[in-house]
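Students often ask what a holo structure prediction actually looks like on paper. The answer is less mysterious than it sounds. You provide the chain, you provide the ligand, and the output is a string of discrete structure tokens encoding the 3D arrangement of the protein together with beta-D-galactopyranose.
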Amino acid sequence: MYYGVAYYPEHKTVEELEHDLALLIESGINTVRMGEFAWCRMEPREGVYDFEWLMRVVERLGEAGIKSIICTPTACPPAWLVSAHPEVLYVDNRGRKRPFGGRRFYCYNSPVYREYSRKIAEQIALRFGHSPYVAGFQIDNEPAQEASGRCHCPECRRKFAGWLADRYGSIHEYNLRSGNIFWGQDYDSFDQIEPPVNTIEVSALQDMPVYYENPTLRLEFERFCSQSQIEYQNIQADALRAHTDYPVTTNGTGLATNSIDYYESTKALDCYGFDYYPGLRDAAVDSFPYAFARGIKEGKPFWVMEFMSGGGHRFGGSGRVQPNPGALKQAVVQSFAHGAEMMLHFQFRTFPFGAEQLNYAIVDMDGVPRRRYFEMQETAGLLKHLEPLEKAGFANQAAICVDYDTHWALRIKPVNDPDFVYLDYAGRLYRLLEEQGINVDVVGYEADFSKYRLLIVLSAFVVSDEFREKLKSFAAAGGVVLATFLTAAKNKDNVGYTDSLPAGLNDLFGVTVEEVEPVFAQNHTAVRLDLDGETCESADGCWCDLLSGSAKPLGTYTEDYKAGGMIVSENGYGEGLGCYLGTDLSDEALGKLLSYLAGRAGIEKNKVLAAPKIETVRRVLEGREYYFVFNFTAKAAQVSIQVPMRDYLTGELYRDRIPLERNGFAVVAAEPEENA
Ligand code: GAL
Ligand code: ZN
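The corresponding structure tokens follow.
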């Protein structure tokens, strides 16, 4: 595993640099990421390049066995570029130019900026592309972060109109498919179309009713902006690739903004990279972002380019609490267990100046190594012992299936706002399955489903014909599909289907939706699950798709006018099953339902027994099961096991239970029967 830190040599005096390099080298880490905001040093004047300051550091580190990840600096164009070309500036949804002086103030569609970006990426590749001390390249920094992913400049407006013209062919077709006759919005030509003011951009100004603009136009603009940033990224990827064979990626914001479709954006990259800042003080670190990351390129290893390093001050004010002793190490091993191939702390030494002054880091401003540094050192040593397990595969048989069109459509027209957040709901099902002792993958709609037995189609609000066919083939071949409420309500134009819901899937699920409504605090209604004789009481939640049809009811309303109505269903389809969950349920009921469906799908549970706040990750190497077990209970704990297991690090044999320290973890392997 690549393990290390982000570092900023351009901030340092000669003495500070010497001091820091010595500490970095002694720490035992093997990777340092550099360069992502240093354009003004790399190209101090137009066409005049200086990479020697960086090359010297790369070489010093490299000679000591530490590889560098070199970033393109395009999140921060230099002052000379912006003075000469103010047209490259980002324009927000209220028409305000974002000025020079921060970061991410450029338009990713600007042809001028694209060309400057291509050139600096090319120069970087020429200088570092063949260095034996480089491990890879990061393009830009956190594309679309800090409300920089929905530019409204004149260039973007022009390009968006052209993009719609290409997709729809004629304005008549566009008017028809987007229902522009509603509120008399028919256009005469594409150049009359303005990008919508409201977008899903996190922290954008939205002082206009969100329903005001056409939902088709809005979804198209989200797609257009995502695609434009992918184009921009790929211009840099191509420029780098022309002069290097090292892996090229970028650092997405993970689940934080989600305004770029990562399934698309990662196609032309070597791996998916993202940044993650979970709390580490007696907190269970959510592994859903890792499962999500692993699914982006269908199981290929992913890179965590920035990860929590400590507490103290925080760039946005307020501050951040320190990790518990052991929590950094535990979190790094957890990312390894979930398939991370790189883990870099943000960042090495606290900045005294600039927007992120006093911000948390591994080492404080005074440069004195303290507990976080020593824990990083210990972690680096530990990872060497775990290295052979890098090759262990994931053999998960359940997957949650998510999609950006639906995610965006549900942000454009939210359902039970703010309680229902599509990707949070995916995370909830993920955790409930884990709590049942079932590890699960998270995949996009284009993934190969054939290796799974249970597929959870998360509230697929927007669906295509192809996807519906894919679900049917999966079930016909013996798989169990569970679709949750709101599935197949709209087509890819973000327009409602006029068939009975779930549109085009009534045969798969054996149901028709009779009526729908949100479920708020005042209209919860009691539901009873009947899972092969085991019953469980719950209330509905979030949303209700009341069902009728020939499917077998797994859940039925027990009160009010809905009494007797079906809300959870199971239907035989080909060799498999189509199941529909018309509402949300309590954790307990949902856990039972998922466990029942996993049983119907023939999924075997983990042999380390599930327990609250203990996470278990199963990997398989050469036919042998390995379990990574993490204690997030904030005290010492024990977990029960079904078969004898041997501690991979200490060699100890456990027969019934594995002991775990506070913030501790264990890596164990099922003991072959003859030794047990
Ligand atoms: C990230 C960003 C870093 C730094 C960090 C602060 O989102 O990529 O450059 O700003 O947050 O925690
Ligand atoms: Zn623009």
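The first strand starts at residue 2 and ends at 6.
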